[in-house]
Each structure stands twice: as C-alpha cells, then as structure tokens.
Amino acid sequence: MQLTRGRQIIVVAVCVLFLGCAGSPDGMPDTSDQSVEIEDNVDRDAGVIGRIRGSAVTLSASAFDGDLAIYEGDGWGWNPSLLVFLFLDDKTPPEGQSIVVAASEGQASSNPHVHFRWRDPLTEDIEVDSVMEDYSLTIEFGSVVDGYLLGHIEFSVPGEETGVSGSFQAVVKEQ
C-alpha cells in the first residue's frame, strides 16, 4: 500500500465505460464524460456507481469511523455496499492522503480489506464477499467540510464483474 500526501482539491473524472454500464439497457446513466470538482462547495448528491458481481449499484451514502463504508439506502449491512477496513494508525480522517493498492501486489497485512455486498438478481437476497488480495483500489481523501470527509474511490476485482468508481462525502462519526 502506498500512502502519500494528496491534493486539497480532487478533480474526479467519472468514467464507467470499462464497467460495461455506460449506455447499458439496465438504465445506468452514461457518466463517462462528466467530472466533479470536490472542494468546499461540495455536491452531497454525488455517488459511487458501477457493478458488484454484475449487479448495477449506485452507492450514494457513506460514513467514516476509522474505516470507510459506502452504501445504498440507510446502512451498509443490509444494502449493496463497500466496507473498506483501512487499518490506519490514527482513526482521525486521513485528510489529503491517498491509498493505492494494485492487483499485482498480492496480500499485505497493511493493505485495506474490502467487504462488498450486492443484491442477487434472481433471489433479491443480499450476498457478501471480501477481498484481501488480487484487487485494485484507489482512494483519494480530501478535506473534512461540515462534518463530511470528501473523497474519490475506484475499486475493482480483476476477472469478475466488480468495479465501482465515484465521489463520496462520508459522515465523520465519533470514534
């Protein structure tokens, strides 16, 4: 895992063409040419979109409590979601920092573990899986504004139909 000092303003280019959802018949919007600038005048309706195990997801809510949860609806545990265990030494928001994990790195104890949930299209049940290696993850953390940690995430698992990308505004919860 590479942890570096980042920019105060993150320019997010949302490109989901590689996920197979832009212009698709499942109604996913074509956002391949949109970009969002995250700074103090943040659009809190932005979200993380893509596919988890082939199911289209729009993750529009998030929270930070030392780990990062991004989800649909009102909680990560019973909705399509990502839960990223960051293993930070300090549980305060990592403002201005980036986390980058390449699929080729293999497992490292310091790399985030990612749990993800999706809705099975046949049964409508929530399914869950997790990865500790063989995934790609980039998280760019911005600043905390009005109790929200701003940022951008890109997550994919090579060889499966799992890949999401977009901006988040995570409610910073008490430690």
Please describe what this structure looks like.
The chain has 175 residues and is an all-beta fold. It has one domain. The chain contains no helices and 14 strands. The strands form 2 sheets. Strands 1, 4, 5, 6, 7, 8, 9, 10, 11, 12, 13 and 14 form a 12-stranded mixed beta sheet that branches. It has a two-stranded antiparallel sheet with strand order 2-3. Strand 10 and strand 11 form a beta hairpin. Mean pLDDT is 76; it is low at 1-44.
Summed up:
This protein has 175 residues and is an all-beta fold. It has no helices and 14 strands.
Give the strand content. over 45%
In angstroms, what is the radius of gyration? 15 Å
What overall form do the CA principal axes indicate? Answer: globular
Domains (count): 1
Number of strands: 14
What is the terminal separation in angstroms?
24 Å
Count of helices?
Answer: 0
- Pattern of helices and strands: EEEEEEEEEEEEEE
Return the average pLDDT rounded to an integer: 76
Largest sheet: 12 strands, mixed
Given helix and strand content, the structural type is mainly beta
The parts where pLDDT drops under 50 for at least 5 residues are 1-44
Helical content band: under 10%
How do the helices and strands line up, and which of them pair or pack?
Elements lengths: L1 E4 L4 E5 L19 E5 L9 E5 L2 E5 L1 E4 L3 E4 L9 E5 L11 E5 L11 E7 L6 E6 L4 E10 L2 E10 L4 E11 L3
